[in-house]
Amino acid sequence: MTNIVITGCSSGIGLETALYLKERYVKVYATARKKSDVDALEKMGFENVMQLDVTKSEQISAVIDAVVKMDGKIDAWFNNAGFGQPGAIEDVPTTVLRKQFETNVFGLHECTRQVMPIMQKQGYGKIIQHSSVLGIVPLFGRGAYNASKYAIEGLTDTLRLELKGTGVHAVLLNTGPITSDFRKNAIKNLEKNIDIEHSRFSEKYKKSLSGNATKVPFNEEAESVARIVHTIILTENPKPRYYITKATYLLGYLKRVLSTSLLDRVLVKIG
């Protein structure tokens, strides 16, 4: 049976992907950072659940060791764990930016580094990296998150070159707006980490907090991501990247055909 390790399964894309694959006879190792979320996953009927905070190297090692001990292999690893920190660049403290990178980039990188030797020894495997449409284009007030996803793009594009001939594939997912708790949690991070009252963007932040911000167009359900992950698992030679949602296709196209100045005009209106 094909197996996969998924990070960040407490809700949203991670959870829905785990459920979708489980129903299609993929052996899912669902992981979550909090013990309470691990317990919740077990109550949902997941048999292979482990606690994993991707910022803790020893926990990554423990998960990998447990999976290899149980199955003797790791077919796929989905680096899904991550969060968003809103706020204009000038308002994001460096300590907060560092925290954004600890999970979204350094945690992803450590998982990737630790699972690669297993897959290289096997001679096959898929490492699926959860990037974003914001790894392709920037949006106002998403600088920290944008930067983390741009970093994932650079790491994975380079990794893909370095894995040539190993049988291991590094695949990028550029997801657009997906139904999840992501935006709700991002709003909490805005309130917690940004000095809203003393920012020149105070009114814009307050609009977001009030719930009167513009609704996100082209939103799709998390199953859109799950279907692509399933396709990658079943494909011998998956594509290097997959666009998910119409928003990603549209903005990816505009990035290719418009000058930087013209694209900026479009993105300012969206932001």
Protein described:
- 52% of the residues lie in helices and 13% in strands.
- The chain is of the alpha/beta class and 271 residues long.
- It has one domain (3-270): Rossmann fold (3-Layer(aba) Sandwich).
- The chain starts with a strand and ends with a helix.
Main beta-sheet strand count, sense and barrel state: 7 strands, parallel
Give the rounded overall mean pLDDT. 96
Classified by CATH, the class is Alpha Beta
Structural category is alpha/beta
The CATH topology annotation reads as Rossmann fold
| Structural domains: how many | 1
Alpha-carbon distance between the two ends = 44 Å
* Low-pLDDT sequence parts: none
Can you summarize this structure?
By secondary structure, this protein is α/β, with parallel strands linked by helices. The chain has 10 helices and 7 strands.
Which labels suit this protein?
271 residues; alpha/beta; Rossmann fold; 7-stranded parallel β-sheet
